[in-house]
Each structure stands twice: as C-alpha cells, then as structure tokens.
Amino acid sequence: RTVEPLEYYRRFLKENCRPDGRELGEFRTTTVNIGKCLCSITTADGSALVKLGNTTVICGVKAELAAPAVDSANKGYIVPNVELPSLCAERFRSGPPGEEAQAASQFIADVIENSQMIVKEDLCIASGKLAWVLYCDIICLDYDGNLLDASVFALLAALKNVQLPLVTINEETGLSEVNLKQKNPLIIRKHPVATSFAIFDDTLLIVDPTAEEEDLATGTVTIVTDEEGRLCSVHKPGGSPLTGAKLQDCITRAITRHKEVKKLIDKVIKSLTPK
Question: What residue ranges carry the coiled-coil annotation (predicted)?
C-alpha cells in the first residue's frame, strides 16, 4: 500500500470492491446533527454538522441586516465561505485560504445560484432599504476526501435550521425594528445534493472517494441534483474525460443519492420538532 498504492488499489478494484470494504457504488456512513446541539457555534442562526465517513464538516449560518446593492434593490445576499484549517489534515497550511478552499467556496456559491435553493428576493425586507445577508461559514474539522458532498449537505441542513426574526421599518423614524419573539423559517425553494465520483484509469467510477482515492484517481466529477431530479451543476475540474454514457450513470446515481440525503435531513428535522 505504501510502495505501490495504485497497484494495491487496482487489485481491489478488479474484485469490484475497495480497501475499506465498500463496493464501488457505496457511500460511507453518513450522519447529520442539526441545531443548537453544536456547542462550537451556538451564536449562529442555523447550524449543522455532517459526517461522511471520517470527513467531518460543520456549517454555521449568521444572518445580518444590510442595505441592498443599488443595482439589485430587491435582493439580499448569500456569502458562502469554506475553510480548510491546518487541523483538519496535514496537507493544509494555516494562513489565508488556499486554492482548494477558494475553489470549494466558489463551487458552493455556484450551487446556491444554479439550484435557486434560496431566491435572493426572499431575503429583501424593504426594497432599496433593507435586506438580509446570510454568511454561511463551512469549516472542515476532519478531512478524508469528498469535501464538496459534505459541504453542500451541511449547508442545506444548516439553512433548514435558520429562523429569521420579523423585521419592519418604522414609518416615522425610518429605522428598522426587530421582533425576536416572532421568527419565521428561511424559505428554501430547492434542496440541492452533491454526489462525487472519482475516476480510476480513465474508465472506472467509484462513488464518495476518500482522500487517498482522490489522490490516486485520474479525475473527479461532482453532480448536483435537486428533489425533482433536475441537474443543477456538473463540476469537473480537469482530469480524465467522461463519455456521455458514464456521465448519465453518474446523474442516475446522484438522483438516488438525493433521495437518501433528503430522507435523512427530514428525519432529523422531524425529531427536532416539538411534539
């Protein structure tokens, strides 16, 4: 495994399995915790922790008030940020965000935009005067591959947990008034879920790759779908090309995975709802 890692992997792949015992199309155990049980970010307006095997990601959403941009007077803002601190894996260094963290932040921003999970007009309180800004901080606590799937999952779960207070603008003073006793859940229009694959030897596809598998792969691809089976995004940062048939296989598997993740989120949220 140390001297010839690729050959070691190929021996398993020939038998249609992987060194960790999974089949090629099998995901690692996935768990999600939602809400204030996360002591590290109790100040957030919404939070979630997702574990995908050993990969652990936490997402905190902070809502603040701001004036809308002049050219989008009736829209709020969503600002995602992915952090890969040096604590989560030896490969990352402390300091400003590295290339991988920046690429992940951009990917999350694209998913939010393309899926229309949150319509920015829904974040507007008073056109041209006041809107919500949602700061979505996604922090990797433990990195073992497939960061994008875990990040999208954590973001969706945290946003489902957000309750925004009622805000009105006083006609006489022109100042905003916040009613913390009256809160409404954030309007989530779509539920995007990411499914990542690693490509081995240009032809073989394995789902939910570990960090080791990502390093050995000749390419990766991430498919994002919503609950209607609509394709929201295909993220393929270089590497081996995919045939149309292989891509269709990935999309079909991603639609199945979406149902599994949505079911898991719904189950956890239902358990949090007061009886």
Answer: none
Question: What span, in angstroms and rounded, lies between the C-alpha atoms of 119 and 75?
Answer: 8
C-alpha gyration radius of the chain: 20
Cβ neighbour number for residue 42 with a 10 Å cutoff: 11
Q: DSSP letter string over 23-75?
A: BTTPPPPEEEEESTT-GGGTTSSEEEEEEETTEEEEEEEEEEEEPPPGGGTT-
Residue 226 CB neighbours (<10 A)? 20
Q: Give the separation between CA 20 and CA 245, rounded to whole angstroms.
A: 28
* pLDDT (tens digit per residue) in 56-86: 999 999 999 999 998 999 999 999 999 999 9
Q: And the tokens for 169? A: 């603008």
- What value, to the nearest 5°, has the Cα angle with vertex 35 and ends 34 and 39? 110
- CATH numbers and ranges of domains, the chain: 46-272 (3.30.230.70)
Predicted structure pTM score: 0.92
Size of the chain in residues: 275
